[in-house]
Amino acid sequence: MVRREGRSVYNKLYELTAELLGQVLFLSSVFVDVRNQLSITSQQSTLLVTSVSGHLMEQCFGPEMKNWMTVPIGSLFDAPVYTVVPESMNNIARTLIEQSKKCDVLVIWTDCDREGESIGAEIAKVCLESNRRMDVYRAKLDQNTVDAVECRSELDLRIGAAFTRLQTLHLQQKFSSLLCTDGMRSFLSGGKQVVSYGSCQFPTLGFVVDRYKSIENFVSEMFWKLSVEHNREGKKVCCFMFSYNPPPKSVVY
């Protein structure tokens, strides 16, 4: 096996030659729900193995939706959403595109969960851009799960963007000194002081606030311990330590 560098320093390329035997059940296409068996009969093949770092793509609005002051917040729920490769994933995508040109078959082995299904579909889309003739197989694929993840991602974008803008613009008017001394001009010029909202971020913030309050409201208690020493001829012979574990407190939620 030979290890080579990819475009990303974190995602290496491993090349090996192996004899593939047997018959494995795959999904013949990541876009059509048709099951097929990839039959391999004692064939020497060159295998190229690499990895990705999570999702290759993300959803975003078009540039016409960027202006917070002129775009109605309600329009964020109906505006077109685009799926793009973010700059942070460009090197990984370039590696996949370059290596796909040399391959005849793509086999996806991402996790068999919601996010893994979606990531696998993203990998296939990127690779097929450079090699449309390549056959794409998947150890397991559920298009319904892929659609569910993409729906979740779109909801995160729409709800997060809408409520972040609503909260920031509303609270900026009420408490301008706390957010931006020069109003939204500070935000638009790069001083991004926002009151953000996210479907995961918001409940996580609640956990942090609850913990902060419990620390701030903590009331210290006095504790004692028993220690017995035995001395003989003025020298300590042994020490007896008493250990006590108080019963857990009952908490009602």
Automatic annotation (TrEMBL):
It catalyses: ATP-independent breakage of single-stranded DNA, followed by passage and rejoining. Pfam families: Topoisom_bac, Toprim. Residues 142-253 form the Topo IA-type catalytic domain. One of its GO terms (cellular component) is RecQ family helicase-topoisomerase III complex. Residues 23-142 form the Toprim domain. One of its GO terms (biological process) is DNA repair. Keywords: DNA-binding, Isomerase, Topoisomerase. Its EC number is 5.6.2.1. PROSITE patterns: TOPO_IA_2, TOPRIM. GO terms for molecular function: DNA binding; DNA topoisomerase type I (single strand cut, ATP-independent) activity. Belongs to the type IA topoisomerase family. Introduces a single-strand break via transesterification at a target site in duplex DNA. Releases the supercoiling and torsional tension of DNA introduced during the DNA replication and transcription by transiently cleaving and rejoining one strand of the DNA duplex. The scissile phosphodiester is attacked by the catalytic tyrosine of the enzyme, resulting in the formation of a DNA-(5'-phosphotyrosyl)-enzyme intermediate and the expulsion of a 3'-OH DNA strand. PANTHER family: DNA TOPOISOMERASE 3-ALPHA, PROKARYOTIC DNA TOPOISOMERASE. This is DNA topoisomerase. The lineage of its organism: Eukaryota, Metazoa, Ecdysozoa, Nematoda, Chromadorea.
